[in-house]
Oxysterol-binding protein
Amino acid sequence: RFSFPKQILRINQSRAGSTGFYARSHHRHTVVLSQVWSLKLEQEVEKNKALTEALQILASEQQELKESIRSSRRSSAPRTLTEEDFYDALSDSESELSVSDFLSIASQSFEEDEGRDSPLLCHPSALRAPSRMSGEGNHGNQPTQRTGDEKHRTCLPAPMFSRNDVSIWSILKKCIGMELSKIAMPVIFNEPLSFLQRLSEYMEHTHLIHRANTTTDSIERMKCVAAFAVSAVASQWERTGKPFNPLLGETFELIKEDLGFRWVSEQVSHHPPVSAFQAEGLKEDFVFHGSIYPKLKFWGKSIEAEPRGVITLELPKYNEAYTWTNPTCCVHNIIVGQLWIEQYGNVEVLNHKTGDRCNITFKPCGLFGKELHKVEGYILDKSKQKLCAIYGKWTECLYTIDAATFDAHKRTDKKSSEDRKTNKRNSVDEEPEEMPPPDAETVQVIPGSELIWKITPRPENSAKFYAFSTFAMQLNALEKSMEGVIPPTDSRLRPDIRALENGDIDVASAEKKRLEEKQRMARKHRSKSTEEWKTRWFHQGPNPHNKAQDWLYLKGYWDRNFTHLPDIY
């Protein structure tokens, strides 16, 4: 009979005991690690919450401290008052500025997942005349279909809601680390227009294009085109409502006989959001087209919209084409303080035939708000010689003058500014985004200057109706004569925009969510069936003048064959 030695049995027993010990130790170690990570996660959550609250408190205290210092300076330092000490009172719409407006500029991607509300530019011009529809080749004096009454509306069905009780920060602080395109804003921050409709406000100053066509001097034409490019962003001023982002396939048309143009636009892409448009002179005297894709950046206390896309104006009479891009738009004080907007950056308007160009600088506000809204630049020939200067404010007017006179004035003005700064060395430095700057209503006109553009004041009831101009008041009007004429994808037929215009914010919010879900489901269906979305009125391709990526009009819209259009509403 065979038996294991006692020594071997003891070794095996010892090994078995060790294995059990190691297993128990490993289990305890795993439990401890799990508890440690859970604790760390809780700590990070608490830390993030504390930092968020601290940031808001710090911004509030900093704002209060600056106001206190400015107040004490005013009360303890009596001196002779000058014209610079007086500024116009802020309007109601300025005091209610919301981050949503900014994206009127800009900002079409400032929404959650599908068909969000969007944003961009243009301003007041009380322009009145009947709108009409016509065929693709129907221009000039040929008969057209009337789509509206001769008397246009001068107000909206209901005034806007107050946004004073809604905190932008309460929304944004929950979105730290998220893409801006994923942030959904409440419908109360919208204005009752689609981004496609907002884009059409470019055409409010079409008289500048017609003026360019009447002169045989290429430099005079450049002045008019440059003024048109500046006037196109004027609607940023005081426009607090964020336009609804167009749904994929949404369209908008507009015909203005008094201004001599017809316009068609389409939302050609949703991710990224891209809107394409084309306007034509009714006498075939110009073509204005482009595509807009705003890129958003969140800087903590401000949001910046960098415009992407090419804008092109063609004047067939002179075989000329001009191209440019819009300046950058920024909204300040999104956490605390009064929200305010500025445009800044360089814009180059290039004449591709002559080589002439107009380099325009939209000046940033600066420390004391002196440069707010100012624009200045030069028209140069193809050898980069200065031909004349342009200056003014994008919110008000634009002048032109001889380049040498302008340079001499700038040198004198710079010396005066340095003298004033010497007298202000004891004042407290202030960051521009924390101080709502003064908004002087006038431009210092240099003797010998020529006025080339001046903005038309908004109507008296503008503040009650989203700071709309008379032109904007008419964009969403839906007359009975339009039934069966405009396509079913037209922005005027969107139920969420219509509900907001009528003052029913609950219906507007519900319809907005319904449309977003409908678009989301349509996209999922296309992905499962390998079906690709096809645009109807525009196609992607190189710009014919600078070869940049662009969306070009396919023609055919004005033939009014609207069969097989998608059901997006």
Remarks:
- Residues 168-416+436-493+529-559 form a domain with the Porin fold (CATH 2.40.160.120).
